[in-house]
Amino acid sequence: MFSPEEQNFPLKKVKDAAKEIGTTNVVVLTGAGISVASGIMPFRGKGGLWEKYDPEEVANIENFRRNPKKSWVMLKEVLEVVEKALPNPAHLSLARMEEMGFASSIITQNIDGLHQKAGSKTVIEFHGNTTRLVCLGCAALYPAREIDLSSLPPYCPVCNGVLKPDAVFFGESIPRNALYQAHMEVQQCQVMLVVGTSGMVEPAASLPRLAKSKGAFIIEINPEHSYLTSSITTLFLQGKAEEVLPVIFEELCALRDY
Ligand code: NAD
Ligand code: ZN
């Protein structure tokens, strides 16, 4: 295990974060940054699919309805990357934190299903999940890996409607249940742990603001300053999620004397 002093997050800060997390009701908000170490690039980072495709164009609901085949060429590549991706130490640490009662839920903007693959149970999918496909005709849901993508777009075996990944596209609203559950969690939390999000995408970016307005302590993990860092964050741990979260988890275990 590397030493945290060698990184930009001194052990003192990690201990402070663990102390806050260890004593109270913690809600976690994750963004694309947490899945970078699993090989899934964030929209705004370098490399990966997004240098080839503009997600705002191909994952736009109007464009998809107009020309689903064109969107599906990119979506098929996204699904292949997501299907192969494995949870990294950041996802695994959060799953262990939930198991040990340190975190009550994860609200994720990610659409890759990696929190569930890591074993997290209470995951609120703010932007849906590409591991499921939804029929635009009858709203039936299918596991993506069970649908043949050799000819695009795929169609619903029941009503022949076009199938779309069950992720929120640009121009679509946040699923009502996820929005409701996220607000309930955020209003009750005393600590919000914000991991790997730029804080640019609304309405998810408003969740830390809401938590803060209700008096919550905001801990942020990100290698870069985000839109939240100077105005919303109480304790900033500058580093990669896959490096910082395992250290926090170790500290939590030490606090509990495991
Ligand atoms: P974003 O792309 O706007 O920002 C990513 C953030 O992660 C940046 O602040 C960056 O500094 C940080 N980051 C990079 N590497 C990191 C690491 N190793 N550890 C911690 N943080 C790291 O992401 P966003 O705020 O989640 O918003 C983008 C939208 O794109 C989301 O709504 C999401 O649905 C979608 N998206 C999802 C995935 C995914 O499911 N994995 C991937 C790309 C985009
Ligand atoms: Zn159908």
Please tell me about this protein's structure:
- With 258 residues, this protein is an alpha/beta fold.
- It folds into 2 domains: 167 residues, TPP-binding domain (Rossmann fold), CATH 3.40.50; 81 residues, SIR2/SIRT2 'Small Domain' (2-Layer Sandwich), CATH 3.30.1600.
- 35% of the residues lie in helices and 17% in strands.
- It contains 9 helices and 9 strands.
- The protein has a 6-stranded parallel β-sheet with strand order 3-2-1-7-8-9, with helices on both faces. A 3-stranded antiparallel β-sheet has the order 5-4-6, with helices on one face.
- Strand 4 and strand 5 form a beta hairpin.
- Helix 5 runs parallel beside helix 9.
- The protein is elongated.
Present the secondary structure layout:
Layout: H1 11-22, E1 26-30, H2 55-58, H3 61-66, H4 68-84, H5 89-99, E2 105-108, H6 114-118, E3 123-125, E4 128-135, E5 141-143, E6 163-167, H7 176-188, E7 191-195, H8 206-213, E8 217-222, E9 235-238, H9 241-255
Helix pairs in contact: 1-9, 5-9, 7-8
Nicotinamide-adenine-dinucleotide (NAD) binds next to strand 8 and helix 9.
